[in-house]
Amino acid sequence: MSEAASTRTPLGLLPSLAPLLRQWLPEQRWFAGKGYAVGGFSLVSATELLPLNGPGPGLLHLLVRVTQRDVPVRSSADCYQLLIGVRETLPPPMAPALIGHLSDGPLAGRTVYEGTRDPRLAALLLERLRTPGLLGPLRFERFDGAPALPARLPARPLDAEQSNSSLVYGDAYILKLFRRIHPGPNPDLELPLALARAGCARVPAPVAWYGTSAPEPFTLGVLQPFLPGSRDGWVLALEALAADRSFQGEARELGRVTAEVHTVLADTLPTVKLGGPQTERLAAAMVRRLETAAQSVPALVPYVPRLRAAFDAVATLGGRGRTWAAQRVHGDLHLGQILRGPKDTPWSVIDFEGEPARPLTERCRPQPAVRDVAGMLRSFDYAARTHRPWNPGWAERCRAAYCDGYAEAGGDDPREEPELLRAYETDKAVYEVLYEARHRPDWLPVPMAAIERLAALD
Ligand SMILES: Nc1ncnc2c1ncn2[C@@H]1O[C@H](COP(=O)(O)OP(=O)(O)O)[C@@H](O)[C@H]1O
Ligand SMILES: O=P(O)(O)O[C@H]1O[C@H](CO)[C@@H](O[C@H]2O[C@H](CO)[C@@H](O)[C@H](O)[C@H]2O)[C@H](O)[C@H]1O
């Protein structure tokens, strides 16, 4: 591992840590570079949050660039946030957090582990957020007007399938730690903040955050109120399917929520009109993503020409002078991103980071709102497809109810722009094929079924 003079790790820990990370990183759910060997690491920053050679557990905050060989699309050196715990021995309940044992250097023999799994270390992060200020390159901030944070809330890691890592404090707050990080404003902070400031009650309003301004500006973690006892739309949809119950009422409400969020985002953040060349660029980007996905997932290849037609149709309309409004959007809206508390409390939308695999600049660009609609429509199809027996009618009814709700609450009825909706649904299904191939190969048939359906449309 290379260490620049200005960014050495405390106690020169990195050389002995690197071989352990090389093994451990690719096994993490949040590691984006699966399938390609980890080459080396270069250090962006290292901060000792708790002394590493003290009597108790130590905590090292690292930002590291990971180089990977033969990566075809993404940058070959993604930057990750790591929280490394250091102890003499790991208590048995924390065994799954093990990264390995240091074999040399001043800490030889010590155990290193995933720090977020240690309640003592997790508690320290909240403590830092309670008292804003600088610690090395890390800046901890609280939002103006947010109430003071209580001390000593018990911490637990969230046990969820997720692209990042989250910690829950006393069922009152949730801290999301971004894993693969990108320089620049993070939409998962920017958008909820804009919505909350505009008085939109559809998001848990951020209360504190931390990040760096140098060597690069990164947002590393955001603290929001935890919605206790909440369940997401995916779980509720599967429950309805299992009970052979309609989900149309919920779908309609979800359409209304989506329109409400879109209206506030369009009112508070920049909007543009897409026409002619921009539309052609948009369609060309969809074609590129399709071709790239087909290189990684050969099952897509036979469908490429028919799927491409959906993107060409949009480019053609743009060429004929059709324009579309574009605004900031959620970017990865699906049933798992909408939570509802107990006793029919209103729905809240979470996770405005966009699709984690897309470049950040692209995710932050104004886009047609129908992109989010397409994401939700795909999600009803996903739910119906994962249930046995397959219930296509259930999905169709939900999709119609969702569009009804969206139009009722002031959104443009997505069905009135069939070419754009189809292009975005196709683009999403292509993304899902790649996502499932990388992360959940057993699920690949779910988006592939949609690919087959979309390719068969006239
Ligand atoms: N404010 C919240 N209250 C309760 N649970 C939450 C909250 N925010 C997120 N969660 C839970 O955490 C999970 C992961 O959050 P998410 O923002 O989607 O992370 P990721 O981007 O890592 O997938 C969600 O599926 C949900 O179960
Ligand atoms: O981790 P994120 O929630 O940001 O999103 C990624 O993972 C999702 C799965 O956890 C994935 O969503 C796909 O599967 C869902 C069911 O698990 C389904 O409801 C979605 O419609 C489907 O796209 C999402 O695409 C991915 O970005």
From TrEMBL:
Pathway(s) this gene product operates in, as recorded in its UniProt entry: Glycan biosynthesis; glycogen biosynthesis
Entry annotated with the keyword DNA damage: no
The Maltokinase N-terminal cap domain, residue ranges: 24-118
Record EC number: 2.7.1.175
Enzyme class: transferase
Reaction equation(s) it catalyzes: D-maltose + ATP = alpha-maltose 1-phosphate + ADP + H(+)
Sorted UniProt keywords: ATP-binding, Carbohydrate metabolism, Glycogen biosynthesis, Glycogen metabolism, Kinase, Nucleotide-binding, Transferase
InterPro entries the UniProt entry points to: Kinase-like_dom_sf, Mak_N_cap
Transferase is among the record's keywords: yes
Quaternary assembly: Monomer.
Family statement: Belongs to the aminoglycoside phosphotransferase family.
Protein name, UniProt field: Maltokinase
Organism per entry: Streptomyces kurssanovii
